[in-house]
Amino acid sequence: MKKISLLLMSILAFYSCQKEEVKTISSPNNNLKVEVGLGQNKAPFYIVKKENEVVVDTSYLGFEFKNAPALKNNLRIVSVETASFDNVWEMPWGEQEKVINNYNELRVNLQETATPNRKFSVVFKVYDDGLGFRYEFPKQENLKEVFITEEQTAFNLTEDYKTFWIPGDWDIYEHLYNTTPLSKIDALSKRNHSNLAQTSIPNNAVNTPVTMVGKNGLHLSFHEAALVDYSGMTLGVDTNNFNLKSILVGSDNKDYKVHRTLPFHTPWRTIQVTDNAPDLISSNLIVNLNEPNKLGDVSWFKPMKYTGVWWEMHLGRSSWDYGMTKDKNGNWVDTGKAHGRHGATTANVKKFIDFSAKNNINGVLVEGWNTGWEHWIGFEDREGVFDFVTPYPDYDMEEVIKYGKEKGVSIIMHHETSSGTETYTKQQDKAFALMKKYGMHSVKTGYVGKILPKGEFHHGQYMVNHYNNTVEKAAKYQVAINAHEPIKPTGLRRTYPNTISREGLRGQEFNAWSSDGGNPPEHLPIVAFTRMLAGPIDYTPGIFNIKFNEYKKNNQVNTTLAQQLALYVVIYSPVQMAADLVEHYEANLKALQFIKEVGVDWKQTKVLNGEVGDYVTIAREERGTGNWFLGAITDENRRDLEINFSFLEEGESYTATIYKDGKNAHWDKNPLDLEITTLKVTNKTTMNLHLAAGGGVAISILKNK
Length: 705
What we know:
The structure is a single chain. The chain is an alpha+beta fold. It contains 13 helices and 39 strands. Strands 7, 8, 9, 10, 13, 14, 16, 17, 21 and 22 form a ten-stranded antiparallel beta sheet that branches. It has an eight-stranded antiparallel beta sheet with strand order 1-2-3-4-12-19-18-15, with helices on one face.
């Protein structure tokens, strides 16, 4: 049935386009080709081919509006423009120093054939490893503003791809990934999840990036780039015909999803197309589709490793609040005095500063430092709860900051908004000014709970604007944002390099308290080829006390210790947390040495091997030192990987310290079994790496002087 429908669509498109020439643009290496034309009812469509094989078949484009006719039929091509672009730009921080931006562009200018003769363009940028396209609405007499109820962007696929997906949730991305055929996606079954604070899954849709693997090894990943003043896009799934179609995130307060005045353009709709999994990670498609740096010099932000007051709260050892307790009915109440379990005390933070200073770690995150934590859980109206400048009585901010500066350690601010967006917006100038006064250049923001104003969602236009406006406001005070419960990353870190990292996935904390067993061993080998394609991840690796039975007997981290070390290389972020408690690191100084040495800002990255959901090996060269670091992780299956060190500089020798799973290592049965060996290596060296079930390998490769 699928083959018949595809054939019929192709015949109809061909027939209706006989009088309307199909416009074609190819990638610089000519392996990828996009065809654009007018099909049924003079509707615009595109086709994507790789080496003359159809990857995305006839897929239509258009819009539905409130109080206006749809804009998708009865169009004519007014003109066509083509261009080529090839340059190199530099990342101020990132996975690599220099980025090649090489593409061919096709702009198709369209206009209605009847009144009101509205005009828009579809612009395609075609790279060797994928493409992006967006709609552009120019200034025009007959159209001043639009209220978009839906964007009719289709992706008509040609087979039942193996798909790695999370549901198209309008509020969170904190779902485990599912691996199913495209035809078996059932997002609606994920609506009720005991471990999630809130979900909104109104459609059988998936969130992006969504990655697919074809029968012949073709790899696709769908996402978006440069998401500004628009709603996030989920992809509705037609399981019978292998079709995806855009479904924008809406609002309960409005009967439209996006409001824009002309002129404007949409975000880029992106498709990565590669022959293998490693090339997905190597692609710079998403960042390249964003505008260049608008901030200029951002050297005030330094990529760093950090520790902090965080994991202990998830373990239940301490709390964010200063004086909460449960009454006889089990309700939380504020006692008005310290209960002795508060984590963000002056003494506790100084302990983290001391540890960080000794171990080449330059930052300490302090959560629970500010007033308001007693009043935010379970309250419907959370506006006005948090004060972003007033510390609790047992936290001397000035003393802590002064102590940190003496030790060469910066304090990372924390702003939990409880999704009270109006309160946070009003307090931002004062809060960021306080940070600037004390020389604090990084803040972790949080948006736990349902968005206020009521009826808005984390991923709709209202919140897209809030997140982006916060980044722009913070830049004026030389503050970098690491957002949790965020909108998904879409490459805006190129335009606003103070967008340093974000959560936007099911993170490490789920291992500490979720009731479903935590993140399974396959989680991160999927994340590397899905969520990480969008941008940096603040995953908080480095848990050494894998079982933590003294805190929670029914929870654990589902990896080996070696994999926790490997994550510092595999899962990219310019801020990497050593997330465990100080005493757990001090009890294993030999393993801690890798965290002490590993870089966090990279000159270049090499993805050496990998399969989506199974395993991946990545090597990165640290900027300024010539040192390399390698990380390899696997799922629940043990495996052997042969590694070629040809990425090293020719004629140089290096000392490699290898942190690998021991002979009896296993993510559940024996996660702490770790072997450490040292040897000399050159670019002629090859090595077999053995990874235990749920395991990994971490290697520091230090250049011999």
